[in-house]
Amino acid sequence: MKQKIIRSERLPKYGTPLRSQFVNMVTKLPGYQEGINKGFPLFTIKELDAFKEHFKDGLTWEEIDKILSGKGIFFKKATFRKYIQENYLSKAIGYKNTKNGRVAIFPKDTISHINFIQYYFKVIDGEHIDNILDMIKNLQITYLDAIESNLSWSSNIYGSIFNYICFDDGDIASAINKALACRQPERDKYLKKLDDIRNKFDKIIRKDIEKLESSLQNEYLGVDEAMTYHEENKDE
């Protein structure tokens, strides 16, 4: 007799390559489109992409709740917190001050992960879970895809390296640590490459920028000249 699947134990954790693969392909998985056709509250790929674009700096629980409620998904805040504690959803990646006080900010793809969890627990059957897990485990992804799937703020490694260099943002280093945790020598190699890029920037590019800034600081333009130019070109 086949052992009964305990779904909560098989659900891939947030931040793992397996979860990323699931989330990226969820709209193409068995029963997904049929679920939408039957009225089950699942999001289309177009909707999910739009959320990530609109909330590219992250979103609050209130915004998450509004989106889910608008789709007809009943998702308690207590459940949201429970999933965070169990590492099924991401912890807050930052905070911001509002008129109602300081609130937590969650990654831009949070709706995509909640949508996947809804599908996982309420749509797909046990046999398909086994088959898909086995299929995905045999797939391979590039280091780049694995790292970018763990980024919290930027959607690509280029933007994250820019933030690392200019604002000392550790998101890219954290993503490398998570993605390559099972391959420590490779992880250490790419963390060193990351530091090498920053050191090269500091030694060469930053000095060129400072020279440009200094040069501009010692040149002067009449206020009337600047005003005249803006008046002449304001309609362009």
Structural commentary:
The structure is a single chain. This protein has 13 helices and 2 strands, in the order H-H-H-H-H-H-E-E-H-H-H-H-H-H-H. Strands 1-2 form a two-stranded antiparallel ribbon. The longest helix has 34 residues, at 184-217. It is globular and about 70 Å long. Helix content is 61%, strand content 4%. Strand 1 and strand 2 form a beta hairpin. By secondary structure, the chain is mainly α. The model has no long low-confidence stretch (mean pLDDT 84). Helix 11 runs antiparallel to helix 12. It folds into 2 domains: 7-140, no CATH class; 141-236, no CATH class. The N and C termini lie far apart (75 Å).
Please report the total strand number as a whole number.
2
Q: Whole-number radius of gyration? A: 23 Å
The end-to-end distance, rounded to whole angstroms, is 75 Å
Mean pLDDT level = 84
Low-confidence stretches: none
Q: Order of strands across the biggest sheet? A: 1-2
